[in-house]
Design a protein that fits this description.
It is built from 14 helices and 11 strands. By secondary structure, the chain is α/β, with parallel strands linked by helices. The longest helix has 22 residues. The relative contact order is 0.12.
């Protein structure tokens, strides 16, 4: 952020004083937690002609540090929802660009990596370590999108020195709205209650179970909400804002990448432009059950109708994203809490032609998340250790000079049934609101959509 020095120091003093007040009142739940600080009132509006924000000087307490501390202290209090969202929107608009001076600013960025993070710092560290081993990483922009405040995650990201970094924060986080929609409203129906019983007890959303008769689970709903908001915010609030014209690679905190990930991406782009002009999407990941043939397949490329096994390491550009966004109604109304299966529905039902994916048979983005939303009885390092051993074994095979399409599937996979979890009319309405996050109103917390 670029502020006049006196304005900056005055604003910082006000924020720090407010933090002190929050600390003193941390045991008292109050409606005024966020109202005490309105970032819009503390600071003058930024100069929108500036292409990027300046990182805080070394050794000086940064406004970003104060803001994240504010977030950390306020997330578990009862807040005024509108002020909370306004504050988070302000943070997003006034993001810092870390390491900007070191790497020449955003005009030098060759590719953008969008990384959705939650609170699994152990996995995120492995992803960051793998990115640090990619020779071309200095010319990238890493955008981390958060739906929770976690000190360990924050520390890992702020420790990155090998690339330019921006952080954004999903404004409708369950960590803030923990006792009202989009969080767990205590008056909502239990996820597994039968609709007939729900009608008798008149829980709040009894009319809106999913396809299978179950009611919303906020922790699952948030993943799709966050993903959709993040994508739209990045394209509108960062890519358009800074006039960036490059590809975007989608990652998550429990992914790792190979050292030759960008080398392979360039090879796939060349193959697409010469031998697979109908390939509309590139996937650097691929669901495989074992890595037995990894080295054998290191230079092989596949071509197939885009489907569930191609949902890791997706590469797209602004043109393709706008096609997806034009089908937002289908995405937001399809009864599936999974963002990837919802996107596939768009490809099958909304696009003129189903997307064809181009992918390396030896994936360059690998999933190591044994423990997560669906799995709790697990060892968090099992897949990570397997992938580490694989990288050591394949080290001399990376960077193939030539790559060729050796696998072509003509049979179109059958479209899947919805997985459910997305029957609540409020989830669908919030999703639509997040389709244009810079140009939409704040969610109306007083609206009754359940009648």
């Amino acid at each position: 952020m670029i502020f006049h020095k006196k304005t900056k120091l005055a604003g910082l003093v006000l924020i720090l004083l407010t933090l002190y007040c929050f600390h003193r009142l941390s045991n008292v739940r109050t409606q005024k937690v966020i109202e005490v600080v309105s970032f819009n009132q503390l600071h003058e509006s930024p100069n929108t002609s500036q292409n990027e924000s300046k990182p805080q000087p070394e050794g000086e307490t940064g406004l970003e540090d104060a803001k994240t501390e504010l977030l950390g202290l306020s997330v578990n209090a009862t807040v005024n929802p509108i002020e909370a969202i306004n504050s988070l929107n302000y943070l997003n608009l006034h993001h810092d660009v870390y390491n900007s001076d070191t790497y020449g600013g955003l005009k030098e960025v060759s590719i953008i990596l969008i990384i959705q993070v939650h609170n699994r710092a152990n996995y995120l560290k492995l992803l960051i370590d793998s990115l640090a081993n990619v020779p071309e990483i200095n010319s990238t922009l890493l955008i981390f999108s958060h739906d929770i405040y976690d000190k360990d995650v924050e520390a890992l990201i702020k420790g990155i020195k090998f690339a330019q970094v921006i952080q954004i924060r999903y404004p409708y986080s369950l960590q803030i709205f923990h006792d009202q929609f989009p969080g767990a409203d205590p008056l909502d129906c239990d996820a597994s209650i039968a609709k007939e019983k729900a009608e008798v007890v008149r829980c709040k959303n009894w009319k809106y179970p999913d396809t299978y008769g179950h009611y919303r689970i906020p922790t699952l709903s948030q993943i799709k909400h966050h993903w959709w908001w993040k994508m739209n915010y990045v394209f509108d609030g960062i890519i358009d804002r800074y006039d960036l014209n490059t590809n975007v690679l989608l990652l998550e905190e429990d992914h790792v990448v190979t050292p030759d990930v960008f080398h392979v991406l360039n090879k796939l782009i060349a193959l697409r432009d010469t031998e697979c002009r109908d390939c509309g999407i590139i996937s650097l990941g691929l669901f495989v059950r074992t890595y037995t043939n990894y080295i054998r397949d290191i230079s092989k490329v596949g071509r197939q109708t885009w489907f569930g096994k191609h949902n890791t390491g997706i590469v797209l550009n602004k043109e393709l994203w706008n096609e997806f966004r034009n089908c937002s109604q289908l995405f937001c109304e399809f009864d599936d809490y999974n963002w990837d299966w919802s996107l596939i529905q768009i490809s099958y039902k909304c696009f003129e032609n189903k997307l064809i994916a181009l992918y390396p048979k030896a994936p360059r983005v690998l999933h190591i998340g044994d423990c997560g939303v669906h799995t709790h009885k697990c060892s968090s390092q099992t897949s990570a250790l397997k992938v580490s051993a694989l990288f050591q074994k394949a080290n001399h095979s990376f960077y193939p000079e030539n790559m060729a399409i050796t696998e072509k599937f003509s049979k179109v996979p059958k479209i899947s049934k919805p997985n459910g979890g997305w029957g609540d009319v409020r989830d669908r309405a919030l999703c639509k609101l997040n389709t244009h996050p810079l140009n939409s109103d704040t969610w109306d917390f007083n609206a009754n959509l359940l009648t």
